[in-house]
Amino acid sequence: MKIPEIFGENVFNDGVMRSTLPSEVYKSLRKTIDDGKTIDMTIADSVANAMKDWALSKGATHYTHWFQPLTNLTAEKHDNFIEPVGGDAVIMQLTGKSLIVGEPDASSFPSGGSRATERARGYTAWDPTSPAFVKEGTLYIPTIFVSYTGETLDKKAPLLKSMTAIDREAKKLLKLFGIEANKVSTTVGPEQEYFLVDEEVFNKRQDLVLTGRTLFGAPAPRGQELEDHYFGSLKPRVAAFMKDLDETLWRYGILSKSKHNEAAPAQHELAPIFTTTNVAVDTNQLTMELMKKVAAKHRLACLLHEKPFAYINGSGKHNNWSLSTTGLNLLDPGDKPEENKLFMLILACVIKAADKYQGLLRACVASASNDHRLGGGEAPPAIISIYLGDEVGALVDSIVLGKNYVPHKSVKGSIGVPESPIFPIDSTDRNRTSPFAFTGNKFEFRMLGSSASVADPNIVLNTIVAEAFADATEKLEKAIKTQDFDEAVKGYTEKLLKKHYRIIFNYNGYGPEWEEEAARRGLLNHKNTAEAVAECFKKENIDVFVRQGVYTKNEAVARAKIQLENYVKTVRIEALTAADMAIKQIYPAVNNYVAELCRNLTAKKAAFASLPYAAEEALIKDLSTANEHLLSCANSLKAKAAEIVKEETEASLFTAHVVVPAMAELRKYADEAERLCSKEYWPFPNYYELLYSVK
Ligand code: ADP
Ligand code: MG
Fold it and tell me: What single DSSP character describes residue 537?
């Protein structure tokens, strides 16, 4: 197999468009894709026909408008190309209209009250900026999803609007610097973490099947303490899976670049090469889907949940984010950042945005599953802060604190062995604990969970940075009426850095000291989804979306409600699953084991009355006690889950403060029983069998 030959073979990409579309049509479509020009409706029939012919040549019989409702998944409804033309004859057809709009029933998708239930109509509209592709006999057309009344019901429409906002505001700002940009786009490279578990073992765990994570499980004798899994050599089944996955992704034009073992046993990572945000979001959705499908082919289960196992690392999705215009990365400090006024201003704007809208950044990654990472004693913490690295950090310190700035000399490194090469050393070290780290020419937002859509954090990042740009342009336009331009920029940058300096933190973000320090600085520290999402209802956090044209007020409120609803529903499913497993699987198993112990003990005592039995008796007592508590906790958890009330805010707080702790209490007794129970009696695979199941 030659990779360049298979790369993108399933995608209606630029090469295919160029060779199948009339040249005028191709040029017009490119203008839409590259410069954001509104699509010319007269070319729709021609594009649709070329797409259909190409799809037929790939064996497709159906097409679907592929969209991203307010879940973390994608949705699709397949229609075939068949069109009867009289008599018995049919032709295969895709009209321009069918390419451009679809009309799925919207009533069963979350709308957060933005749409009355009886108003079921929804529309999907083609997004030409993300390429169509053929998968499993269907042509997939990426689309946005809106209601009859025009409210967005998906993640893509606001994402595109946020990209428009940052493009518009960045261009205005660049214009002040004499730069006429055609388009400013954001780029994203999402690193995807996941776990692999043997399918047979996976299927024996009701919690994994129903909730994606283990609700019970005593730690295996060996976790990640030896630090030998990270970057370790790949086991044969894992290597075969990764090879198959890479090939599959390449066929869909997805630039899967690196793969490696992660810190926890059975944990791995895949990183693609970055692309424009919209495409990065779509391809990440497709990547997650294909990971599961390719895993199934290898009789593996791919777990994308943020915290499938307690006691070891969870999975995230690092969102590498940058901003560029043709040939210029706006987050590249260059050789002399101290003289790069544009870079320093843009940096200051990002810092301001992150500080001012920390509530939104925290809220956009909040979910039941991500609560186990953020604020759950695991990286990164729930507090938003920015790590700038040594060079830029020192420069900002010098501006804010009036310290002397010594420019960072570009150093050549050597490992001190004569045969080894001399290599340039990066100007910043890494800080793995920071939720939002400047990494040379991009920001890495590390709070996103592994199963979440990449759209959410980018909608927020693009919007809040666009707002900071808009403010900067307005202030600078005023200032340069009375001031020298350079002085005005310098003065404004300095003002922003001083005002928002509290968000910068260059040290260990894991320790309890940081929580105390962050509290002194007045930074937010929301530990669960209920509290984090409450930020979204604040006026200033709604206004910014409205001003930047990303959400209407109704849409912003509806989305926050849906997020809370999802949180409550997820936890309720977990609570019911946990109670079910405890009552129907764990309790009877432990009871049987205790009965056997008792029978044996009675028999032994009858035969040898004088032998010591203290440990055995203690085991019976401990197991019986744990099992009794388990049963009573399970009953009470079930009752609490049933108490969850309707209204989102109240239900989410009840969930966070009553249901989640009740689940933890139940788990305590289950794990205690597991530690004591015979392996033979335990009703499902334990952590050792799950984490070391793939050879
Ligand atoms: P690390 O593990 O050190 O964070 P990786 O190489 O695994 O590094 O991932 C870095 C990610 O950042 C890749 O997906 C890469 O494509 C992406 N990236 C690099 N440059 C940019 C950029 N300008 N904009 C967005 N993403 C970028
Ligand atoms: Mg990373």
Answer: G
**Residue 509 C-alpha to ligand 2 middle, in angstroms?**
16
The ligand placed nearest to the CA atom of residue 255 is 1
CATH class of the 568-691 domain in this structure: mainly alpha
Q: In the structure encoding, which two tokens stand for residue 316, read together?
A: 């995230």
How many Cβ atoms sit within 10 Å of the Cβ of residue 111?
Answer: 23
> Mean pLDDT, 10 residues at a time, over the chain (695 residues)?
93 96 95 83 93 97 94 90 93 94 80 64 91 97 90 93 97 96 95 97 98 96 79 90 97 93 92 96 97 98 97 95 94 94 98 98 97 82 93 92 77 62 59 86 96 98 98 96 94 97 86 89 96 98 98 95 95 97 98 98 96 97 98 97 85 96 98 97 97 90
CATH number of this structure's domain 162-551: 3.30.590.10
Contact status, residue 558 vs residue 151, Cβ threshold 8 Å: yes
**Does 330 contact ligand 1 (Cβ within 6 A)?**
no
Alpha carbon nearest to ligand 1 atom 11, residue:
189
> Cα separations (Å) of 140 from 68, 156, 285, 643?
13, 15, 13, 42
Given the CA of residue 273, which atom of ligand 1 is nearest to it?
A: 16
**Closest residue (by CA) to atom 19 of ligand 1?**
274
DSSP alpha helix (H) spans, 376-521: 390-401, 455-479, 485-499, 512-521
Is the shortest distance between the CB of 441 and ligand 1 below 6 Å?
A: yes
Measuring CA to CA, which residue among 681, 672, 684, 675 is closest to residue 625?
672
Quote the ligand 2 centre to 316 CA distance (angstroms): 10
Written as six digits, the tokens of 87 are 């008599």
554 lines ligand 1 (CB under 6 A): no
Q: Determine the Cα–Cα distance for residues 261 and 267; give it in Å rounded to an integer.
A: 6
Nearest to 269 by CA among 224, 332, 318: 318
Q: Domain 3-154 is classified in which CATH homologous superfamily? A: Glutamine synthetase, N-terminal domain (3.10.20.70)
Helix (H, G, I), strand (E, B) or coil at 487: helix
- In this structure, the chain runs to a length of 695
Regarding the beta carbon of 185 and ligand 1, being less than 6 Å apart is answered no
Query: Per-domain residue ranges for the chain?
Result: 3-154, 162-551, 568-691
Does ligand 1 have an atom closer than 6 angstroms to the CB of 224?
no
Which ligand lies nearest to the CA atom of residue 446 in the structure?
2
CA of 185, nearest ligand number: 1
